[in-house]
From TrEMBL, chains A, B:
It comes from Alkalimonas amylolytica. Keywords: DNA-binding, Transcription, Transcription regulation. Signal peptide: none annotated. It comes from the Bacteria. SUPFAM superfamilies: lambda repressor-like DNA-binding domains, Periplasmic binding protein-like I. SMART domains: HTH_LACI (SM00354). This is DNA-binding transcriptional regulator, LacI/PurR family. GO terms for molecular function: DNA-binding transcription factor activity; transcription cis-regulatory region binding. Gene3D superfamilies: 3.40.50.2300, lambda repressor-like DNA-binding domains (1.10.260.40). CDD domains: HTH_LacI, PBP1_LacI-like. The keyword DNA-binding applies.
Amino acid sequence: MSKPTLKSVAKALGVSTATISNAFNRPDQLSVALREKILSACTELGYDGPNKAAQSLRKGSSGIVAVILSDSLEYMVSDPVASQFLQGVARELERQQKHLLLFSGNSTNLDTITDFVDGFICYGAPRNLGLIGQLRQCKKRVLTVDFDLPGRPSVNIDNEQAAYDSAVAVLKPDDVVAVLGLRLIDALDSRPVADAPMWDNLSSVSHRRLDGYQRAMGELGLTLADDALWHIPESNQHFAEVAAKAVLSQSPRPTVLLCMSDLIALSAMRVALQLGLQIPEQLRVVGFDGIEETLRYHPTLSSVWQFSDKKGEAAARAFQSGLDDNQLLPYELRLGESS
Amino acid sequence: MSKPTLKSVAKALGVSTATISNAFNRPDQLSVALREKILSACTELGYDGPNKAAQSLRKGSSGIVAVILSDSLEYMVSDPVASQFLQGVARELERQQKHLLLFSGNSTNLDTITDFVDGFICYGAPRNLGLIGQLRQCKKRVLTVDFDLPGRPSVNIDNEQAAYDSAVAVLKPDDVVAVLGLRLIDALDSRPVADAPMWDNLSSVSHRRLDGYQRAMGELGLTLADDALWHIPESNQHFAEVAAKAVLSQSPRPTVLLCMSDLIALSAMRVALQLGLQIPEQLRVVGFDGIEETLRYHPTLSSVWQFSDKKGEAAARAFQSGLDDNQLLPYELRLGESS
DNA sequence: ACTACCAACTTAATGCATTAAGATATATGA
DNA sequence: TCATATATCTTAATGCATTAAGTTGGTAGT
């Protein structure tokens, strides 16, 4: 005997398919007695509700939400900030009884899943820029986080202001400043930005932060040397150390490092300590993100805390709400021993 | 004008729907000329291939694979071992052009997604035991990792032997042994197992490891005191520290700690050092799993490395292969400064 | 010239369910 | 008692595509 369907159950009970469907979806459309009879007959027959794939085809919604990560899943799951975000999304989605589908930002084709999902939460601009065009045209709901798409709802923090605040808190009038930036240009290794063209699409967050740093520096009359603005392709130990070593061996040696992620800042501090530098006496460091790990190391890191898990929850809630506004979440500047 | 469908495209071109379908799915069924005409007409019309939801309904497969985690997504994403595993799965799935849906082991109902996916990769027995029954009866492909379901393919390591090996490597004839076990009984806090009933379903891995420890101890004539076998509900710092503190203040004080995860072992070492104990002189510690973090701390941890990312890849490959065997993956005992 | 076969399409059944609109019967109110 | 409203169920159109089986025209072989 094959798997029972709505139709076969209906026939077995001598009622119409509409009634069975209503028994599951609109209890007010039939008598209580019949409904109970149907429901118990269903368990009897091993029918556990309408087929979700058919339902999804008919209703046009599945209860599955895709989260598009900026990079490969691989990288994302190992990044503390991204996985915090994912935790938040997961928590809220569980509350909503929805399902989470992970989608890599390296993928080329959105429409391998578009039909399956209720929409997309995009965490950071996808590495494959082709996806952006597809997202723009997508008929389904699209919500962006940490970047913007015209006409689409978004969840962000005020990166410019946050970066400004962090710089103001750490800078002094006579400082030599270096910036360890994240994904500023289109290069796969750590290197000074110099005159390479800025990578507009992928890095709006980074550029805002840079603007903030520069506003703060401007107010103090400080300028950023050409070779003191570095591009780091991925927020990890290796790439950060390369940049930190280079920057800290320049002369005049920087007295302040403005870092666009905590992981970068942490690595930079390690390098500095290895070079025998005193923190914060000879070098002050400020990070960005706010991750638990910075609390376990000494000196503890001054940083902008942006509570990625809350951001994830907010994103999932905003996705569900149907509202199309651009949300700005609060952040918090927390000073540690590094400044 | 509404979204184009296979039917509307067919009408526009004056051919049958079967032909359009074949143009996408079975190119050998129509002439090259017509196919190209159709394909270009499709881009013209903004039709980007057959609707996946309908396709899934018809074909009965979607290209989506669900990974059922043992706990909440929240916990899983933050656990280094689980996220390593997830990375591996994601990597292999990307290769196969399949999609990854994350499913919490706390969920009550499998059939909210069964119809959407091609099957399930279960990473550890789900915390909600009700799911196990549902998985047993599930018509779709089910592959288990780190536990077994009768008649289903699985991916494991030989936990008993691995635990045995690790214990043999660290134990000496006059040792006082304590075991910090993971999820041995049904309790939400850290506590001695004592005479609580073992939690069979959820902890097969842990029980195998315990068997391995005990075999090794038996060969050396060592026994495990009643209050020296501890249950830890979750592999995290807090629960591990509670157990470690308790065990290390017993007398006679243990000279060896057999820990069922590296996170537990790491926390235990921290506690030991705080108590002023010398490692490995006064206390030897061995862990389980193999995570990068243990290489950054001193003393470095002796542990069983099980390469969770490879396990993830193997699981995704085995899922795809259709083979129904029970795979045993290699592990590696790596000795560090802790023993 | 006739059969056989192939290439290239089409027909129509099928997968599983939702839902607006229609049909009955029973109850309500004046 | 008659018209109207309500509760309860059914009919049938619809969502979008896959695929086995059928049709047609043409080529090849003898």
